[in-house]
Amino acid sequence: MPAPKSPPAGITFTLTSHRGPVTAIIEAALERALNRMALPWHEEATNEVPVDTGRLKSSLTFSTPTIQKAVAYTDHDGKGASFRPPKPPPLTLLLGTNVEYAAAVHEGINWEGGPVQIKEHTVKAHTVKAHTRTTKTGKEITVKAHTVKAHTVKAHTRNMPAVTRAGKKFIEGPGRRLRPRFEQIAAEELAKATS
User: Fold this and answer.
1) DSSP letter string, the chain
2) pLDDT tens digits, residue range 17-41?
3) Cβ distance 68 to 84 under 8 Å?
4) Residue (of 190, 150, 191, 195) closest to 34 by Cα position
5) Which of 33, 37, 129, 153 suits a disulfide with 189, CB 3.0-4.6 Å?
6) At what angle do helices 172-194 and 19-48 cross, to 10 degrees?
């Protein structure tokens, strides 16, 4: 019978993977970083939203896996509305709104024009600031500041002119500008977690 083989002479290394616990520490640090990034991005974006009625601006909110910031605002019918964004997947920060025209304001509009069905709706009493506008004939006129009384507009079809308007990029712009700060926050949280 042959003699049993003995292990080769030398040093034996046993490697143990700590990937799971290390990954959990890193993900927890990045989650804290996302929570720290959410508010500055939300504030910058909110400051950049163009304001007509204030509906879009007041509906802008954010969500991380641990924070879902609900907002309340007035909808186009003058009724109270609210929005709580969905919980995003891990390591994700969402900034957005549920207002239907937000994408057009953010990305811009390039519409050829044509008939649009306007539903019956109620216009709230409001004050119009002085401004200039262009008439159908192309003449520019000045509209004085005035008050509009509450009234109902019946359903009708309106022929809308072609519109081309650059997007305001109120979410994307601040995100790009704040990126160096976000990278710094992530580095700080990772350094805390690994020290």
Assistant:
1) -PPPPPPPSS--------HHHHHHHHHHHHHHHHHHHHHHHHHHHHHHS--SSSHHHHH-EEE-SS-B--EEEE-TTS-EEEE-PPPPPTT--EEE---TTHHHHHHEEEE--EEEEEPPEEEPPEEEPPEEEE-TTS-EEEEPPEEE--EEE--EEEEEPPEEEE---TTHHHHHHHHHHHHHHHHHHHHHHH-
2) 888 888 999 999 999 999 999 999 9
3) yes
4) 190
5) 33
6) 150
